[in-house]
Specification:
With about 160 residues, this protein is mainly alpha-helical. The protein is about 65% helix and about 5% strand. Strands 1-2 form a two-stranded antiparallel ribbon.
């Protein structure tokens, strides 16, 4: 059976199921009263949107199927070494965020990924890491006024 369907059809069916579950779950709450949306309105709207998007994806999958594109394992060709490296780096980022602070930890994290996952030259790594950390701090720390952890250096 899997040789007759493709990945887009499978993933669309899964997302459609999630959309239906969200819609049904939101019906437990009030959708709306006269003129004001209720607590369940936004989740219901999200479920409907998810169902519509998955139907579009399913339709595109059917069109791909007609061109001969069939299901293949999404795990085929995965570079497990790089995936594990990114996962370990994310855990390290989470552990070091409070002691080192947001800016320093973000710069180290981005620099590490640029050097190990997609090897770049040191000048590129340093510039991108600094710009990413600075830009992130401006967006989250200054514009959005999020409480970001400050390291021992105060930033």
């Amino acid at each position: 059976m899997l040789n007759r369907i493709n990945n887009d059809q499978v993933s669309s069916a899964i997302w459609f199921t999630f959309g239906i579950i969200i819609c049904i779950s939101s019906l437990k709450y009030r959708l709306s009263t006269l003129g004001t949306p209720g607590v369940g309105f936004l989740p219901f709207l999200v479920g409907i949107t998810l169902c519509l998007c998955s139907l579009i994806g399913f339709t595109l999958g059917v069109l791909k199927q007609r061109r001969g594109i069939v299901w293949r394992s999404p795990l085929k060709g995965v570079n497990w070494k790089k995936s594990l490296t990114v996962l370990i780096a994310l855990f390290g980022y989470a552990l070091l965020l409070t002691p080192l602070g947001f800016s320093v930890c973000t710069a180290i994290f981005v620099g590490f990924l640029l050097r190990t996952i997609s090897p770049q030259k040191w000048p590129v790594v340093i510039l991108v890491a600094i710009f990413t950390a600075s830009g992130s701090y401006m967006i989250f720390g200054i514009l959005l006024k999020a409480q970001l952890p400050h390291g021992p250096w105060g930033f």
